[in-house]
Amino acid sequence: MELTDAQLVPLAAHPGPYREAAFEVLVRRHAPRVHRIAAGTVGPGAADDVVQEVFVSVYRNLASFRGQAQFTTWLHRITLNACQRALTARQHLSLDEAPELPAPHNPVQTGEQADLRERLAWAMRQLPPEQRDAVTLRELSGLDYAEIAEVLGVELGTVKSRLNRGRAALRALLAGIGVTP
Q1: pTM
Q2: Helix/strand/coil (H/E/C) assignment for every residue in the chain
């Protein structure tokens, strides 16, 4: 029998015989999605560090999770905050600096998909945080508009507007660096 998040969270939140095992199940269950969000937001190279930061934060703060929202809503908020901190730490890069176009490369060493992911991550980093968060939650996490509104604490119309503006900005940024969206 597989336990739900609602059943695992209390077990993982407080010292006891099941704490570590319950937390491990939560990590295995949610780490792929957290990694997808991080890779799409900060880039594949920094995603592992963000995932680690997210789950360290979750472990430290799980006892304070009030359960007023779903665990996944809380986890998404922590993930977006960790991504924002990682981006802020990388501010030494110019926001206007586009990624270098790759020299002809050996497909064995680097694939076109990896290059495309890095370009997309660069474009995502250029978006204002509120647009980036909305696009990330929709396109990388697959949340519906109501779930995004809950995670971000905004109205449904605001989510739609941020998604529309964010997608338009992404199209323009990607076209500007030679990627056809």
Answers
A1: 0.77
A2: CCCCHHHHHHHHHCCCCCHHHHHHHHHHHHHHHHHHHHHHHHCHHHHHHHHHHHHHHHHHHHHHCCCCCCHHHHHHHHHHHHHHHHHHHCCCCCCCCCCCCCCCCCCCCCCHHHHHHHHHHHHHHHCCHHHHHHHHHHHHCCCCHHHHHHHHCCCHHHHHHHHHHHHHHHHHHHHHCCCCC
